[in-house]
Design a protein that fits this description.
alpha/beta
Length: 303
């Protein structure tokens, strides 16, 4: 996974030789909830069933939301549920120089923008307000000129995803504070770690178009994607840290695993965590995961 330009590199220890390399990348803004455990389990099972590598990255760029207690809590939860990762824990903040190099490569395609979130609230796409204003690049957000249609791609679970009937609006690649945006950071981080298979929540499916466009601009081969359903509350709201979803109680790890394995289409008789996971690896077939963007029934699976 080396970009055509050769300007962006990989961690030497993580360069894949054609094998499966997956990852789980939680944000350290709070403890894991059942929805994040479902994504972690699906990603881990997919890697282990294909004799692959499963990496852990802490996505810590959004520093105002970082909770100092969250990362150790996340690691402890994964460990108590038997989800061992390969190698060291990675962090987005490890890749700041890579982010900066990518932004420099994109600079000629970018323009400065000083629009506020309030000014853009309710708009489906950026209306091009600052495209021709010639604002200074320093001290403002940078938006990339997204001239192309949204790329179509094949998702291993959701199937053919075609958003080519819409143009992706000019999107931010560097925030006003100088930090890389999520779409840029995740593309560069995955490249640096050698990730070639991404299993993540279907709530990120719409973001994939921006990431694919960035990969095209940077000369990066895209990974294979599989977007698994997210768990929603009875109201239809996604379980998330932002919505203060209940943190996982690791004392009930077998019950938590049984809940998410059932939602992923697997039989999940209660047993020791290691036994349950070993059985799930042998039975794993991503085609058996419900092909949906969200899953209800969360309350029926809790104690």
């Amino acid at each position: 996974m080396t970009p055509v330009s050769g300007d962006l590199g990989q961690d030497s220890a993580e360069q894949p030789s054609g094998g499966y390399v997956g990852r789980f990348a939680p944000t350290p803004s709070g403890a894991l909830h059942l929805g994040s455990l479902l994504t972690a389990v699906a990603s881990w099972l997919d890697a282990r069933a294909r004799q692959g590598i499963w990496l852990l990255r802490i996505d810590d760029l959004d520093t105002p939301r970082v909770d100092a207690e969250a990362e150790p809590a996340i690691l402890a939860t994964l460990e108590s549920h038997g989800l061992a990762w390969d190698g060291p824990v990675h962090r987005q903040s490890d890749h700041l120089e890579d982010h900066d190099r990518a932004i420099r490569q994109l600079r000629e395609r970018c323009f400065a923008c000083d629009c506020t979130r309030r000014e853009l609230h309710g708009l489906d796409r950026y209306p091009g307000t600052c495209r021709d204003r010639g604002l200074p690049l320093d001290g403002n957000a940078l938006r990339v000129r997204a001239e192309a249609k949204a790329p179509a791609f094949i998702d291993r679970l959701q199937g053919h995803v075609d958003a080519s009937n819409r143009t992706v609006g000019d999107f931010i690649v560097r925030r006003r504070d100088g930090v890389a945006s999520y779409p840029l950071a995740v593309v560069v981080d995955d490249l640096a770690m050698g990730v070639n298979n991404v299993v993540r929540g279907a709530d990120l499916l719409e973001n994939t178009a921006e990431q694919l466009l960035l990969m095209r601009m940077l000369g990066i081969p895209p990974p294979t994607y599989a977007h698994v359903p997210v768990i929603v509350e009875a109201s239809g709201v996604k379980l998330s840290k932002h919505n203060r979803a209940t943190a996982i109680d690791s004392r009930w790890a077998p019950h938590n695993l049984a809940a998410v394995l059932s939602l992923l289409g697997l039989e999940a008789p209660l047993d020791q965590v290691g036994t349950m996971l070993a059985r799930a690896v042998g039975e794993w077939n991503i085609a058996h995961v419900p092909r949906a963007r969200s899953l209800a029934g969360f309350f029926a699976l809790t104690r």
